[in-house]
Each structure stands twice: as structure tokens, then as C-alpha cells.
Amino acid sequence: MIYDIAGIRVKMTPRYEKLINQSKEYLSNGEADIDIDFPDSITEEFFKEYPYLSKEDCEYILYATGFYEKILDYDAFMLHSSAVVKDNEAYLFSAPSGTGKSTHTQLWLKNFRDAYILNDDKPAIRITPKGIYAYGTPFSGKTNLNVNIGVPLKAICILERGEENKIEQVSVDFAIYSILNQTLRPKDEERMDILLNLLDKVLRNVGVYRFICNTDPKSAIISYEGMKDKNICFDVKKG
Amino acid sequence: MKIKKGFMLRNVGGKHIVVAVGEASKSFNGLIKLNDTACFLWEKLIKGSDKDKLAKALTKEYEVDIKTAGESVDEFIKTLKEAELLDE
Fold it and tell me: If we measure between CA atoms, which residue out of A78, A81, A186 comes closest to residue B19?
């Protein structure tokens, strides 16, 4: 089957319900840009190594990994984050699992009528001639919260749990460190170079913030207000 | 002394940063930020060097006396050793 994900045509043949359903919106045709299919034996091997996962989850992880590894060649990479859209701009809340990314973006939906979830687990960030975009993908985690659309990327927000709500811009190295730990880390120097080049472009065009937050519904307003007006990122001349 | 394999120095977002790939990344998932001096020393250590050579190189490149250069080198080497980035 051919799917159009983040503007890239992908050959993929999911066999289990979860991914079949989550990918329906992305079905396409034509020639594949990338082929991420793998034999059943790979799923079996993976399942043996991680028996606490279902085969369905194994397939999901294998396809997601394959996809995110290959899209580096299409100026794109994954950020483990919950992506929410408001005013046709994407805000990606990134953090390790269990921090509360989805909890926070759900608060955006409660506070802002026009907000929607672009991708709740692994959106793709792509450098395009039109600018830097965030894309919905079938890889949206436990739920089917994803939309097959590309939206200009406004900001990346590194989320942490805390007592008081506080948002601030971060240093370049904090941004790189945080993003590298929430993406698919390339295995060799060549692939890492590609990712670092993409990161460099992102850092020069997109705001990166750190948001220490609690579960107060008003935290959504604080994060939005803290990011919506600034159009810049880092002053890279000053560094 | 030489920098261990798998540590890459690159300029990202206007900063010199070091990240690990491959085997090295299994024990190091951090990131190091280098200033210009550290960057200069790092490049020498990629090929392999020793404290004396590094100190001398610093005095040639920067307006600094050999004693200060030696101190800078010592401090830098110490940091690299603590982070386990150096093969001796």
C-alpha cells in the first residue's frame, strides 16, 4: 500500500488493526519515495524480545522507526511530542513519556475552541521550501489523535512537571539536548549530520521554550500566551 | 591522548556542540557545549595530542602565555576525562 505521510509517499503494509486504522486517512497511490516494509519474521523477532508488547504494538514501533529513520533524507525528522494547532500554527509539547504532554494539549482544547490535536505522539517536522512545517502522521500513540495535514511550526515547548506555571525561552544547547533526546537518535555520523543540519535550521526559525507546569486548566493559557507573540528563535549571532 | 570514537563536534544554531553516535551514545546521551578555545583544543585531540603540544598550540593561536595556556589545557583535559571522552 502507498501512504502519503508528511508529503512523502511511503510503501507500507500494516497487518494489524491499530496501524491499519490509524493510517487510513493517509492512503494514497503512485510510486513510493520510501519503502519501509519488512517481513513478518522481523515482527516475530521483535515480539520475542519484547513479549510484554502486543504484536500490534511491535508492528507500530517497527514501522514508525523505519519511517522516521528514512525521512531524514527528505529534510524531516520526528519529535516525540503532542502537537496542538491554534491559529493555523503548530505548537509541539515535547517531553519523556508520562510527563503530561497529552494532558496539557487536552487543556488547550478545553480552553481554545479553535485548537485541535495534529498528532499526539510522533509528529514529523519537515523543512520545506515554504517554511518549517509540522505534520500529522499515523504514528499517534495510544489513540487515533492525528490529522493528515501540514501546519507551519510555531514553537517547540519542552515540558516539565512542577508546582508553579513558568515558561521561558531556552539556550541553544538546552534545545538541542532536549530535542535529541526526544527524537530517533541516528546510529552513525552521516545520519547524525543530516539531523543536526535540520536542527540547525529549526533553531534559526522556530522558538524553543521550557515550560514548567502543573495541571491547572489555566496552564494552557500561560503556555499559549508565552509563545504566541514571539516570532524569533535564537539570536544566533550572539549565540 | 585522543578523543574517543563516536563523538562529533558540530556547529548547530551558532554553537559548537558535541554529541555521541554509535557505541559511544550507549553510555553518553548528553551534549557538550564548547567555547572557541575548547573547540580549538578538541580539533587537535581528534587527531591525537598531548598536554605540552596543546599548550604550545594555544600560545601560538591566542595571545596567552605558556603558563595560562597550560592551565587551560589541564582544566579541559580534566573535564574530558571526567566525561570519559578521552582515550589515553
Answer: A186
